[in-house]
Amino acid sequence: MTVTYTLSVSEARFWGFPRLLARWRGSIYKLIYREILFFLAIYYILAILYRWVFTPKLQRQFEAIANYCQEFTSVVPITFVLGFYVTFVVGRWWNQYLALPWPDKIAIQISAYVQGGDERGRMIRRALIRYVNQISILTFQYTSTVIKARFPTIDHLVEAGIMTPEEKQELENVETPHGIWWVPAQWFGQMAMLARKEGRIHDDLHLKSLIDEMLSFRSQCGTVWSYDWISVPLVYTQVVTIAVYSFFVACLFGRQYLYNPIQTVLDPSAPVNDIDYYFPFFTIFQFFFYVGWLKVAEAMICPFGKDDDDFEVNWVLDRNLQVGYLIVDRMYKGLPKLTKDAFWNNVEPEIPYTQAAANFRGVPYYGSTQAMNIPDRQAEWDFPEPMEPIDEETQIGNPSKLSVATGSTRSRNIKKRKSESGDNLSEISRSNSSVDMDDDERSNGSRQADEKRKKTRLGGLMQGFSRSTLFSKFGSKFSINSSRCSVRKNNVARSPPPGSVNRQFSFPVPNQTAVHNPALVANRSRLSTMKISRASTPQSFDHVDELDDTLKHVEDIQLEETSLFPPRTNDNFSLSTAQIGVPPSVKEEPEPDPDNSGSGSDSSTLPKAKRSKSNASSPGNSGNFATCSFPKVANGGAEFVKRTERLLNHAGPSYLAFIGAGIMKPFELYLFLYNLLQVLGWGIVLVKTFTGITENKSYEELYNNVAFELAIFQTAAILEIVHAAIGFVRSPIATTATQVFSRVVVVWAMLYKVPSSRNSIGVLMLLVAWSITEVVRYSFYALGLIKSVPYFLIWMRYTFFIVLYPMGASGEVLTMIAGLSEIAEKKHLSVELPNALNFGFSYYYFVIILCLYYIPGFPQLYGYMFQQRKKYVGGADVESKKKTH
């Protein structure tokens, strides 16, 4: 599998990498030789046709196509797209290798932590490492094709000895809609816990280390599984593939040798392709480079497969199982004899070299600056010159000035603190003036402290409305009144603002009950005398225990005297002593709908809820139709619904009952009628076609016989694109549009516009294939809408296509090819330059491109139909068998 050539490039030498070009296994030649042979075969077929088969006129047209394709090859940004893609795939490939699980670490921990030389201890150790390996084997069984081929089922794991029959039975008993590769990880955890209970794992830390390492191993397996699940985005792969293969399709034409040299744009006198080399050397070099680059990404995108450079997953699993058992079993407590080493008395041993390695003996490396020399003069210390003292430092030698300054500052601060109990507004103004005067003599810290005191005094101007008092007033969860638990949670309380009266903690007790509850009055007085502020100890409140016991006693009183206190509500203002008058909420009745129908019904004046009940209970109403047909109509559409009901009432009550019963919705009825009309139309085409065949009519007469019906009903199929777009049917829009568009082009742009296309056998083929296919298909759709599709029609729908689809596609291509000569001669539907719009269109090349599109498009549609056949025809057989049993 993995191709290793490390020894061949272990040293750089002459002709080093080119020697690898002679290898076949894992080489680029093995990857792309089939593509190269196919490319050369098409290239020479086109060359033979151009040189010996085409007429001079067709040769001129081929040369024009070759010139156009040659210009196209310089437009495709193939190198840019391929570079990013391959870089992404290579990074993903290496990350998948890093995700490979290796059990060595956990095996060593099992051998060290799980003690016991008896048979049970040995069984536990082997079971633990077996569970670990089972995680990886089950993971690769789900993700690797080579492991799936080696172990197709769990029975193969039992036969191989990787799993015991009891473990297989336990694994099969796990009921889960997801994968079961993780189940042995759960077994490992249970077995490790059992070993801990039995004392074989001596410490909980050892148990935790084992579980953590197992989870890490399981995470590696989960990463491998995730890489298998999340692929490289399909659109990215498609873009790169289209870019590469479209480039070389253009090269098939653009790199041909041409008889008439093509003039280049830059130098019209310089011809190109003037020498026939018979073999496109540089085109093949490009093919090696670009397609080889793409094939490298293709080989590395899934490294768990069967390619030459895929990972050796089988070897990894074998090695993990063998090494794991070796570590936990045979090597358990296997230690060499502890002796003195050979360098016991030598702290600087010298390890000898052989003759082959003698030249690799080197001098110890001491660092890049070891050889750097610093002159003695520059190695001397450099002391800075003494600095001149600044004004503030001169005061250090004069203590009297310093003490005077310090004393004056201290006296000013004392005066400020004494004047704090006065008028706050005058104090703020005085402090502002003093700050301006003393700014130069005060530090930043003192200035910040003064600013903080200013803000505190401003808060004191609002008596009773600081943050803490507001919480206490309204009974918030942040106040002490709310719950005694808040005292425990908040170890630091906000103090009342300076200058404000200490807040009294009060409860909303009616005045008439205060006399009858002396215990409550006493508790309230105790609460009011408590001071909770920042002035208390930094760890807790003053008298926290006393306050806690008091609040607990208050709660007991509240439980006993429930009649005295109103129940707490979600409204924070319900406990406030100041009641705010709020008008009671009024339930508004829904406004009645205006009666625009002119029926004079009394129910139109009722509210919406009442009127809906009235309508639902009234017998004989046709509201079912409005509910089923217009489920999302707003009030503005009520008149439309009523008028529609009145119009449909004239169609008969049976239709309304059919619709109202929910059997068929209006759009389903429309689809049913549309499919019936298509069955009728294509049935006419089918009958006329086979009638013409029995009468030996020519191909053109066959077409003329059904031209009118063919044009009408095939054009009507455009509605199917609209059905898919608006959600009437669950068909893919792109596939439907492609199929319908190609047929409409054949009917109108070929058979109708180009008479010479009617003389091809393709006309007979497409008429037979289209008519049979469409009669069966539209019958299947129509009966499916009424849930009455017989099995024989299902079988016909998903069996006839095996013959009819290739016949129809071949007929369309042959019909278009038959009209090419007339299109090229008469320029049908083509727009030539120059013109007023400066726009050119060649219908001739459009038809050629459309024919080429059948090559990738038809297999996709054909394969999709086979998938549907497997789903429906096979599913019908299974269902019938289930019903019989």
Can you describe this structure?
- The protein is mostly helical.
- Among the domains are: 26-96 and 233-300, no CATH class; 104-229, no CATH class; 471-493 and 505-567, no CATH class; 620-663, no CATH class; 666-884, no CATH class.
- 60% of the residues lie in helices and 0% in strands.
- The chain is built from 34 helices and two strands.
- Strands 1-2 form a two-stranded antiparallel sheet.
- A hairpin with a 7-residue loop joins strand 1 (262-263) and strand 2 (271-272).
- Helix 9 packs antiparallel against helix 10 (204-229), helix 20 runs antiparallel to helix 21 and helix 27 (699-716) runs antiparallel to helix 29 (733-752).
- It is extended and about 115 Å long.
- The model is unreliable at 264-273, 399-407, 427-441, 460-548, 550-555, 557-637, 653-662 and 876-885 (pLDDT under 50).
Offer a few descriptive terms.
885 residues, mainly alpha, 0% strand, disordered C terminus
Q: What is the molecular shape?
A: extended
Tell me the fraction of residues in β-strands, as a range: under 5%
Radius of gyration: 46 Å
Discrete helix count: 34
The count of strands amounts to 2
Q: What's this entry about, in short?
A:
This protein is 60% helix and 0% strand. It has helices at residues 28-53, 56-72, 78-98, 104-113, 119-143, 145-150, 154-159, 165-172, 183-197, 204-229, 234-254, 281-300, 313-330, 391-394, 399-418, 424-438, 444-460, 467-474, 485-489, 518-529, 544-560, 608-617, 623-629, 638-649, 653-660, 666-694, 699-716, 719-726, 733-752, 761-785, 791-797, 801-818, 820-826, 843-884; strands at 262-263, 271-272.
